[in-house]
Amino acid sequence: MQHTTYVIGVDIGTQSTKAVLVSAQGEIVAQCAQGYQVETPKPLWAQQWPDVWLDAVEYCIKGVLAQADIAVAAIKSICVSSLYGGSGIPVDAQGEALYPSLIWMDRRAQDEVRWVRDHVDLERLFDITGNGVDSYYGYTKMLWLREKEPAVWARTQQFLPPNSYVNARLTGEVAVDHSSAGNIGGVYDVKARGWSDEALQMLSIPRRMMPDRLVESSGVVGPLLPAWAERLGLPAGIPVVAGGVDAAVATLAAGAAQPGNHVAMIGTSMCWGTVRPSVDARHGLISMPHVFNGAQDLYVFGGAITAGASVTWFRETFCQAEIATGKALGVDPHSLLEKDAAPLPPGSDGLLFLPYLMGERSPVWDAQASGAFVGLGLHHGRANLYRAVLEGVSYALRHNIEAGVKGIAQLDERLVVVGGASHSDMWMQIIADVTGRPVFTLADDVEASLGAAMLAAFGAGLIDADAVRRGWVRPVLRTTPQAAAHAAYNDLFAQYVELYPALKPTMHRLRQPPQGDTPTT
User: In Gene Ontology terms, what is one molecular function of this protein (predicted)?
Assistant: First the structure.
C-alpha cells in the first residue's frame, strides 16, 4: 500500500495569511486563513511589523493541522511565500526587527527617487538590474531609512524579505530567494543572479546589509528547528523551502512554468506576469528571477493599482439602487449592472475610463496620475459607465501585455485569468475582445499558498520538474475574441493610450493645492 505524503504551503499576503495542506499529488486537504491590517500611520505610508506575519503563519499552520485527520509524520516539508516586502525588515545582529517593513504599496520614498535620478547613472542601473526607479522598489525605501531614520540605519545588520524573516525564525538559517532579491530592484544583478557590488556602491548601500546566502525558491533553507516543530505540531527536521514573491508563486500555481506562459490576476489590483529569458527595464515592467527554473527564467510583470477596486468604487459610489435591489432579491448587484451593460457596444457608446484612482504602476509609473471618464454625454447612464470601468481595466491589462511582449520571440496565444474578475462572464468576454486572445480560467480560485505547496513538494523531492510544468490545475477555455469587437477595441485602445500623456499635465496640477491658499494657524 502506497502511503500518501503531504506538504504545507503558506502565503503571507498584504491583508491576510493563508495556509493549505496539500497531498503530493496536489489535492487540497485543509485551508486556514487569518486577517490583519496594514499600518498606514501617514498618507502614502504602508508598513507592517514582522511578528504580525510570524503569528499568522503559526496560527494558519496549526489551523490546517487541526482540520486534517492525517498522521503528522506524513507531512514532509513546508514553504512560505510572501507579499513583496519592499525594503524588507531591517534586523540587528541578533536578527531582531528594528523597524517595520515598508511594503510594496508604501510610497514615502519620493525624495529618494529624485536623489537616485539626480545622482546615479540610470542607464547603467537599468542594464544591471532590469528594473527602474520608483518608490515601489525596496532599494528606494532602504534609502528612505538611511536618510530619515539614521539611528535605525546605523544598527541595521541586514534587510530580510518577509518570507526570509519567517524562515530564519523557523530554521535559524538566513537565506534570501532570488525572486525576492531581484524584486528589491536597484541592488540585484539580474544577469549574474546575485547582489551587484557596482549598483550598491552607486547607491551607497553597504554590501553587508544584503544577506550572503541566495537560494532558489525551491531550495531548502534548513531543517525545522525542534522548538518550532513542537510549537507548530510538525515533525522536527523537515525541510523548510525558501518560497518567493507571491505574485510569481501564484502565477506558477496557475500554470506559468515555462517561457511564453502568462497569467493575469485581477482582484483588488491587477497583476499580469509572464515567464521570459531576458528583460529590458526600459519597457516599464518589473522583473525578478522566476520561482521555478529561476537560474534561466525571469518573471516579468506589471499591474494596475486599482482594478477590482475601481469596480468596487463605482458600485459603492453610484449604484445604491442596484445594491438595494440585489439585497432584496438575494442576488449580486454586479449581475444587475451587467444585465444592462452587456448589450452595449464596445466603447460603451463613446466612453473611455482611465482606472488610475490611486496613481498608477506599470507601464505609466506615475503616483500623481488620476482617474478619468472621457466622452461623457447626456445619453450615458450607469450601465455605460459600469461597462467603461470594466473596459478601462481591460485596456490597462493590454497596456502591460504590450509592454511585456517587447523584445521576446513568443508569448502564448492563450491568456489565463484568475482572481475575482474571472467570476464575470461579461468581463472575461471584454478581456478577450480587448486583447484579441482566447481567455482561459480555472475551476477553482488558485492562490499563492497552493504555489508555495508545489514548491514545498518540489524542493523536498516529492515531485519532479515535469510535474511542476504540468501543474496541479488545468486552465479551461472560457471564451474567445469576437472579430468585430476586437477591431473596434483596437481603435479604442489606441485612444486610451493617447489619453494619459494628454491629460498628465492637468492630472498633476489638480494634485497640487490651489494657489493662494494660506494655512490657518
Answer: D-xylulokinase activity
Question: Is the pLDDT confidence value at 521 over 70?
Answer: no
Domain 308-415+426-435+482-511 - what CATH class? alpha beta
**d(C-alpha 242, C-alpha 179), whole Å:** 10
C-alpha cell at 207: 554590501
Please state the three-class secondary structure of 484-505 as a single string.
HHHHHHHHHHHHHHHHHHHHHH
3-state secondary structure of 164: helix
Q: What is the mean pLDDT of residues 504-511?
A: 95
Which residue pairs, CB below 8 angstroms and at least 24 apart, start in 312-319?
312/268, 313/357, 314/385, 314/386, 314/389, 318/382, 318/385, 319/382, 319/386
**Cell representation of residue 183:** 524584486
Residue 287 · residue 182 · CB < 8 Å? yes
pLDDT band, residue 515 (cuts 50/70/90): low
Confidence of residue 279 (pLDDT cuts 50, 70, 90): confident
pLDDT at residue 409 in the model:
60
CA nearest neighbour of 394 among 307, 453, 456, 469: 307
Spell out the CATH class of 6-254+443-476. alpha beta
Query: What is the average pLDDT across 2-31?
Result: 92
**What integer is the mean pLDDT of 51-80?**
97
Other CB atoms within a 10 A radius of the CB of residue 204 amount to 10
List the grid coordinates of 338.
451587467
Residue 181 backbone dihedrals phi, psi, to 5 degrees = -65, -45
For residue 244, give every residue at least 6 positions away whose Cβ sits within 8 Å of its Cβ, in sequence order, or none.
Answer: 81, 163, 177, 178, 179, 180, 217, 291, 455
With contact defined as beta carbons under 8 Å apart, do 47 and 70 qualify? no
Q: Where do the domains of the chain lie? A: 6-254+443-476, 308-415+426-435+482-511
Q: Give the three-class secondary structure for 69.
A: coil
Spatial distance between the Cα atoms of 172 and 225, rounded to a whole number of angstroms: 7
Q: Does 499 score more than 70 pLDDT?
A: yes
The amino acid sitting at 244 is G
Q: How many residues does the chain have?
A: 521
Nearest to 363 by CA among 472, 264, 286: 286
Residue 518 reports pLDDT greater than 60: no
Share of the chain above pLDDT 70, in %: 98
In the predicted structure, residue 1 carries a pLDDT above the cut 90: no
Burial code of 324-344, b = ≥16 C-beta within 10 A, e = fewer? eebeeeeeebbebbbeebeeb
* Kind plus residue range of the DSSP H or E element containing 287: strand 286-289
Cα–Cα distance between 86 and 16 in angstroms, integer?
Answer: 17
